[in-house]
Structure formats: C-alpha cells, structure tokens
C-alpha cells in the first residue's frame, strides 16, 4: 500500500473479482487483439515456494467461445504451470486449472532462443493454440452430447433394456504423456539473470 501511495498512476486492487474486472476492461475489447505484459512480484512468488499459487494470474474466460487467451512464459513446464496461476474467471476462488487442461491452449513455455532464431515462433504458437482451442470446444460439445445420450440410455436401461458399456481405449493421464516424461526443468536463463 505504501508503494501505491508513493507512485502516481499506480492502482491497487484487492481480491480476485476486482482483479478480474480490471483485467477484463483492459483486455476484452471487441474487434481488437490486446497484449498485456505482466512482471511477477518475485518476493511474493518466492514466498509460495515458487509455486503457481503465487504466480501471475491468468483468469480464463472458459465459458466464452469467442475469446482465446494466451500466456507465454519461459518458466511454464509441461507438468506444472509454475509461475502462472490459471483459474476460471467466473470462479476465481475455485482451484486452479490443472496444467493438462490449459497447456498448449492457453499457456505456453516461451523459448527465448527459438523466438530469436525463428521469426514466426510466436505466430506458429498462436496458430497451434487456435487449432487446440477449437478442438477442445468440439470435445466439450461431444462430451455434453455423450452425457445427454448416456442419461437417455440410463433412463431406457432402468425401463428394462439391457445395455452394455464398451470400454474405449486406455486412459493415459497427462503426467504420463511423452511430453511430460521427456520435458526438462532447465530454464534458458536463471531467475537472477
């Protein structure tokens, strides 16, 4: 509070809802893409053991099918958002999204050296994100349809039908995927650089 009082132009927001409202007013402008750069408050992040709970906020508008939010950071890891705290904008007090739900759609590990060598590095990542985002929405829609069908089938089953359930393929949790198992925790630059 003292810092906010001594610097002009600094606004202090308390609570997730106030932060959500402020960020939405800055970022969600119809018809134009908006970029925002956030710098983490290292002492606060460090106090949480450098965990996502003290990380930069990303409040995902998960109910909005016309809004794709992306966050690039060189500390994001395939098994841990690490420096990002990714939550539903509609329920910021709810638990954070698991990294498997947002990696490659909303959050990306930025590779600084690749972004220098490959001019289209970020544009390629945005294109991949759009494809993944659309696929995720199709999967949600298909899941909703399947649940409605299952509910209908359950109703029929209770009415006397004998319906069997066929097992689909083997489930592989995100933590056991090749991307996580092959991932490195090494960073391009140390935190103190």
From TrEMBL:
<protein>
    <submittedName>
        <fullName>Uncharacterized protein</fullName>
    </submittedName>
</protein>
